[in-house]
Automatic annotation (TrEMBL):
Residues 61-90, 91-119 form the 4Fe-4S ferredoxin-type domain. GO terms for molecular function: iron-sulfur cluster binding; metal ion binding. This is MinD superfamily P-loop ATPase, contains an inserted ferredoxin domain. Keywords: Iron, Iron-sulfur, Metal-binding. InterPro entries: 4Fe4S_Fe-S-bd, 4Fe4S_Fe_S_CS, CobQ/CobB/MinD/ParA_Nub-bd_dom, P-loop_NTPase. The keyword Metal-binding applies. PANTHER family: 4FE-4S CLUSTER CONTAINING PARA FAMILY ATPASE PROTEIN. PROSITE patterns: 4FE4S_FER_1 (PS00198), 4FE4S_FER_2 (PS51379). It holds the Pfam family CbiA.
Length: 290
């Protein structure tokens, strides 16, 4: 089962939840994999402390123009939807940071003046954190295109066991690439007006992908009715609440997962996993009946 942990904004405690869940479930399955898809700033390693055993570089192909062959017809620039090419009267200028590596410019060049050259945009590292398999993507400094790195690190998931994906914050392209294909998305929300607005955006995004979802309220107070009311109105299950706690905040600042703060959280995450499994099964039955 693939569970994506996401949030509509940064700072909700998404990585704390994802790493704590992965550690809590390692006794329930022969194989648990944690994949850090927040490739612009991965931080799951702070809580899991993995031993890195290998890495792979990630490349995309960007165009290189042969000035001797180029007739400056401009077809390549007209084709490029991302404005990675600019045709002037003297030359065709390439902006590699805009290129998505589709190769359309090479395909349509009438004089074969375009050659695609590899450009490193990131790295995927893999290792072990206890019995939890670990993988993280890291975008190269100065690179702008993160979805290919997200897709590359997701390939380290298998059909076996439990896979926890720690998605980037927000609702942009990297998040969509992270959540797409998951069996379930756990949305971490905080009980504030800003948190509600961003949760609503995240719910719309996840539902547009056809992925069932539920909500975990972090830093919950006695009166977290703002989020709970929204969940009732939008038929969302509140699967868990983590209270606003000085002890939890202090442990977080030291990189300590929730299960190490109090063993009750290990039991809570195992329970939430069973609830998610039941929700996914019911969703499948409902789709079959429809």
């Amino acid at each position: 089962m693939i569970i994506a942990v996401a949030s509509g904004k940064g700072g909700t405690g998404k990585t704390t939840v994802a790493t704590s869940m992965a550690l809590s479930l390692q006794d329930m399955s022969s194989e648990v994999t944690f994949i850090d898809c927040d490739v612009e700033e991965p931080n799951g390693h702070i809580f899991l402390c993995p031993q890195i055993t290998g890495s792979d570089n990630i490349y995309i192909e960007v165009p290189e123009i042969d000035r001797q062959k180029c007739t400056r017809c401009g077809k390549c620039a007209d084709l490029c939807a991302f404005n990675a090419l600019l045709a002037t009267s003297d030359e065709v200028i390439v902006f590699p940071e805009f290129c998505h590596g589709c190769g359309g410019c090479r395909y349509f060049c009438p004089v074969e003046a375009v050659t695609m050259m590899p450009k490193k945009i990131g790295t995927v590292e893999k290792g072990l954190a206890g019995r939890v398999k670990f993988a993280r993507g890291r975008l190269e400094v100065g690179a702008a295109l993160s979805p290919p790195v997200v897709d590359a690190v997701k390939k380290h998931s298998t059909d076996q066991g439990i896979i926890i994906l720690d998605a980037p914050p927000g609702t942009s392209c990297p998040v969509i690439h992270s959540v797409r294909g998951s069996d379930f998305c756990l949305l971490v929300a905080e009980p504030t007006s800003f948190g509600l607005n961003d949760l609503d955006l995240a719910v719309q995004m996840v539902r547009s992908l056809g992925v069932p979802c539920g909500v975990l309220i972090n830093r919950a107070r006695e009166r977290s009715c703002l989020i709970e009311k929204y969940c009732r109105e939008h038929e969302l299950n509140v699967l868990m609440k983590i209270p606003l706690s000085k002890d939890i905040a202090g442990a977080y600042s030291r990189g300590i997962p929730l299960g190490a703060v109090d063993g009750k959280w290990n039991k809570a995450f195992r329970r939430i996993y069973r609830d998610i499994r039941e929700l996914v099964a019911n969703e499948g039955n409902n789709r079959y009946q429809r």
